[in-house]
Design brief:
heterodimer; A: 109 residues; two-stranded antiparallel sheet; 4 helices; B: 181 residues; alpha+beta; 5 helices; 46% helix; 13% strand; globular; Trafficking protein particle complex subunit 2-like protein (chain A); ER-Golgi transport (chain A); transport (chain A); Sedlin (chain A); Longin-like_dom_sf (chain A)
Chain lengths: 109, 181
């Protein structure tokens, strides 16, 4: 279902980025960058609204039913954050996070 | 004036995640403060000892256990009552020697390491849960039992289970008697 998964820090650099097939990686990196602009737009449009789980999702940039995928990703991300040896801002090297992303991407083929 | 014979009031449950994250922050900070794994392990044990000497009073007040007559009874109480009360798990018990002074507590699940996938690089000798060893050692000492408590197996080091070894040494009381002679 996914061809590229990226986790971006608030300073706009990637904490984790993976895509399949691996040939078009650069194209995906650019896409992630442009999508950051759309994210910024959406956030400024929301104004001072309280951010809850649903709104974190930003309704996705495309209208599809991938909320479950986002939730899985977000849960794995919070598990990574809870690791006391992980410093926020580090690249994500967690094996559990990797296998969760693999399981999401395998469904494409 | 009669004192009511009820136990201490029920403890308020706190969020497990908060407790686990607090413990993790403690270990992570010790790792930043001390370069050597042995030092971190030593300070975790020391802190645990301080907790254990105090926790045992709370435990005895809440649990109303009867006086024990053997080391195996004591270990059973630690596994089935104390661990259950404070960590919500019940490790299984094995006896490791025929004179019944060496025991092991086997933990299939260890709530303290829930968010820790593996030990960080360069920290392969770290005993992440060494606080537990100190707690058990301190608690036993307050009831006049000297024991060595160490980790024999650790899931963070690749073992299948976590095993805490408890070896009872000479009773502290006995030593006192000998000196008085």
């Amino acid at each position: 279902m996914a061809v590229c998964v990226a986790v971006i820090a608030k300073e706009n650099y990637p904490l984790y980025i993976r895509s399949i097939p691996t040939e078009n990686e650069l194209k995906f990196h650019y896409m992630v960058h442009t999508s950051l602009d759309v994210v910024d737009e959406k956030i400024s449009a929301m104004g001072k609204a309280l951010v809850d789980q649903r709104e974190l999702y930003l309704g996705l940039l495309y209208p599809t039913e991938d909320y479950k995928m986002f939730r899985k990703l977000h849960n794995s991300y919070t598990d990574v954050m809870c690791n006391p040896f992980y410093n926020p801002g580090d690249r994500i090297h967690s094996r559990a996070f990797d296998s969760m992303v693999t399981s999401m991407m395998i469904q494409v083929c | 004036m009669s004192r009511p014979a009820h136990r201490r009031p029920e403890y308020h449950k706190i969020n497990k995640d908060l407790f686990v994250l607090t413990y993790g922050a403690l270990v992570a900070q010790l790792c930043k403060d001390y370069e050597k794994d042995e030092d971190v392990n030593k300070y975790l044990d020391k802190m645990g000892y301080g907790i254990g000497t105090r926790l045992v009073e709370d435990f005895l007040a809440r649990s109303c256990v009867r006086r024990c007559h053997s080391y195996s009874e004591i270990i059973d109480i630690i596994a089935q009552v104390a661990f259950k009360m404070y960590l919500g798990i019940t490790p299984s018990v094995t006896c490791n020697n025929s004179s019944r002074t060496e025991f092991s507590l086997i933990l299939d699940k260890n709530p303290l390491v829930e968010f820790v996938e593996e030990l960080p690089a360069g920290r392969s000798s770290l005993c992440y849960c060494n606080l537990l060893c100190g707690i058990i050692r301190g608690a036993l000492e307050m009831v006049h039992l000297a024991a060595d408590v160490t980790f024999l197996q650790d899931t963070l080091k690749g073992d299948r289970v976590t095993e805490i070894g408890i070896t009872f040494l000479k009773k502290l009381d006995e030593k006192k008697y000998r000196r008085k002679k």
